[in-house]
UniProtKB/TrEMBL annotation:
Gene3D superfamilies per record: P-loop containing nucleotide triphosphate hydrolases
Coiled coil region boundaries: 461-499
Gene Ontology molecular function, alphabetical: GTP binding
SUPFAM superfamilies associated with the record: P-loop containing nucleoside triphosphate hydrolases (SSF52540)
InterPro entries to which the protein is assigned, alphabetical: AAA+_ATPase (IPR003593), G_AIG1 (IPR006703), P-loop_NTPase (IPR027417), Sigma_54_int_dom_ATP-bd_1 (IPR025662)
Chain ranges of the AAA+ ATPase domain: 61-197
Assigned protein family: Belongs to the TRAFAC class TrmE-Era-EngA-EngB-Septin-like GTPase superfamily. AIG1/Toc34/Toc159-like paraseptin GTPase family. IAN subfamily.
UniProt entry keywords in alphabetical sequence: Coiled coil, Nucleotide-binding
Organism: Phoxinus phoxinus (Eurasian minnow)
Protein name: AAA+ ATPase domain-containing protein
Amino acid sequence: MADSQSLSKRSEELDTELKTILENSKVINGNTKKYVLSPTVLSDGDLLRRERIGQKNEDKPHKVILMVGETGTGKTTLINSMINYIMGVKWEDKIWLEAIEISEHQTESQTKAVTVYEVYAPNSPFALTVIDTPGFGDTEGFNKDQRVAEALQQLFRSEDGIHEIHAVCLVLNASDVRLHERKRYILDEILSLFGKDIEKHILLLFTHQEKPTLPKRITNFIKESLSKYTKNGEYICFKFDNCQSECSEEEDRESYKVSWDNGIDNFRKFFNHLNEIKPKSLHLTEGVLTARKQLDASVSNLRDRIELADLKEKELEQTKTALDKCENYSKEQNNFQFEVDEPYKDLVPINASWWHLSKEATHCTTCKENCHYPGCWWVSNLSNCSVMEEGKCKICKGKCDYTDHVKDKKKCKICKGKCDYTDHVKDKNKCTICTGKCYYTDHVKDNNMYVIKTRKVKKTKDDLKKKYDEETGEKKDLMTKLEKHIKQIEAEKIELVKECYECLEKIMETALKSTSMSSFIHLDFIIEKVKETGNQERAQKLEELKIRVIEDNKGLAERFYTYTKQMII
């Protein structure tokens, strides 16, 4: 605890509320005294954490920004600097506030979870919510980047979460001289998280930038990487040098005064611009994140069902071969025996590999299928699982879901007053993945999942007659029934492939970056299956999409496209 009498001279004049914040902070003494803030923890999960700094004040206008960037860009220092600015810390105070403690010799991203900071500064005209994300592209790689998308989906989807945003801030290191393809890949992966309507809300924040103008290598990189997401090639950017937090010796302190003043000036410009931005609904972005999860779940389920269908076809072909060998179907031959490889589903404990996000799977007890693995880690009530149908508005006919209805205002943000929140069906009922599209109550999330196996089974002709008479209720030739069953399985496979294609198509239509490589780890698989269904038009579209993915990502295509594809195989 800090002793209030030990605060600097001007701190005696500070707002009482700010004093309270400082007194409850960890103090690191030095020429510039560092206060590591102790925020109120609102929720604390492995992937999503929420904290509050200061006393909540709902009367103030609220600004929400999302900070994303590569590991090592200085995002953490920038957020701390931002909080010092809105808290009104001045140069002469000789204090520095850290909402996120920065350890010495830190080389990797310290942020492990998506963290939401609600900042209520006593003298600020607005309240600020900063969504801080773990750095992209660090040593944990693809797995960690996927967890960011998972956490953001929870945040944007939950009723008490965040449903609109003022700006997505891409943090870039202006001093970085290694602007190679990997950075373009990381930038694309970040942009692929958002809906197309977020385009005008993207701001570029450059760190480690001491000069008024950006280096030419930076401007060229931005033109190459962001030209598709900026109007007429123009973008809005703000520059910071990240030196404000330096706790220098007294004799060197004055040399940092210019840096401090520049930081104040740049933050003033940043927040003046932020005040002019109207908030944007995250409905489309949440839909993009959900569609990606549904695509993953659909393809995983499709692989299982196609494997089962192929094994069933094999069993039926073995049966037909056995019947062909029987020279006649006289009574004395009715009970001849033959052996087939019969497929079946076995519920077994999950043997989780290192890259999976969860050791739990959501599976249907009726269809005996895996509907979502890895499952939504935050979900306890399966009606909220990403693969369940969202409750739709009875008036809007599916144009919006219940989260678009603001209960306090009694009206829907999408319907523009045509209906109120009571017209939106809140319950999420049916699964979009399993064969029977069963209700969520038929599903279980635990540490088990279905695995397809085969076993040797001896059968007789009477067994087959009994089976197909019971299934069809018809008295037809046995071989005809077998062939009909095979065609039925083929039709089911075609429908499954169609569902995957439609999910992929939704991402293409709504995502800000629709050709990022990790978005299409399933692309080769879907192309292969679409070709098998004979739909040449769709196959051609997917081939063209694959070409665009490779062209957009140039030198990275072979390495990263292969890598991300392996994650699902």
